[in-house]
Amino acid sequence: xxxxxxxxxPDDQPMSLETVTLIAAVIMLGLIALVLIMMLAENPDRLxxxxxxxxxxxxxxxxxxxxxxxxxxxxxxxxPTETLTPTSTPTRTPTPTQTLTPSNTPEASQTPLYTFxxxxxxxxxxxxxxxxxxxxxxxxHVGSHLKSVYQHGLxxxxxxxxxxxxxxxxxxxxxxxxxxxGPGYExxxxxxLQGVINHFPGSFVRIGYANSPGFNSAxxxxxxxxxxxxxxxxxxxxxxxxxxRNHKPVIALIMLRTWASEGGPDTQxxxxxxxxxxxxLDLGVIPVLSTLPxxxxxxxxxxxxxxxxxxxxxxxxVPLWDLWETTKTLPDQGVDAGDNHLTIPPGDIVNxxxxxxxxxxxxxRNLEALQVxxxxxxxxxx
Length: 382
Prior knowledge:
Layout: H1 17-42, H2 44-51, E1 100-102, E2 114-116, E3 139-140, H3 147-155, E4 163-167, H4 169-172, H5 194-199, H6 239-247, E5 251-255, H7 268-282, E6 286-290, H8 303-316, E7 320-321, H9 323-327, E8 335-336, E9 341-342, H10 361-379
Parallel strand pairs: 4-5, 5-6, 6-7
Antiparallel strand pairs: 1-2, 3-7, 8-9
Helix pairs in contact: 7-8
């Protein structure tokens, strides 16, 4: 019996290469179509563009801003009606009552800077008969308005022949005016100052109760520093009051510092100087405020203090002796940088007013002190 032969069914026939390639292409096209459909679904704007329909919904992603945009040029009118951005801060013109003006508008982190108002012109020039203009004292606010202070002092018992020296070691030192008590001094071309020396005997060599090494503006107002043997601690008498009560002067030559080197109003130094001036006027003493000469490191700079001294003298209309103004023309500005004291001539000779010695700070200050006293004597006391 013959076995039947097995013929392959149609489904069991192997696929040809063309058939496999066709199936793969169909699948690939299907995948590509699926990806395109998903992308268009995420961005309907593109679908609308492809279909030719207008956009119905704005794109959620804004278009990028062009890097080059057109600029518009504005021509300002002659009279602007509105200023959006100020180009500068207007500066106010100071009035006579406002003597210090901020030089700029300080921010919270800035320290205010002050510019001193130009000083008033004196009523008349100071008649000092010297052929050397550089030897003129720079003196302000000396005039007949001080006569009432002088008369008030006389009514309180002050002596017209006494003056006091108020300050630190520069005023306490025997180099300051002591050499004009007795023989040995040389006035040179300044012989007219002999009348001042004759008028104030005893005051030149006096070491009072309000001058001492290290004294500052706070110390002369503090009863803690008053001489217990001659002052009245039980009455809280200050060194300034003690000196005025004991010596009874009509003039006080005042040169004081503060270790804080503060400048301008609303500072401790300003209020201390005001208190010194007011107390002097109350007691019939004409206060002569002297500026400070150059101060080298490590001392505080002198200019902030000098601006305060000038301000107080101007506000109270009391004499201002601008020692800084004249000593700045001297060699080393009249100050020894080693110890920050006025320079001393060879041989420690500080009472000779000749060309050689007048180049030193101590001699120049002595000359100017006599010139200050001479001005007040001639214009106020006579």
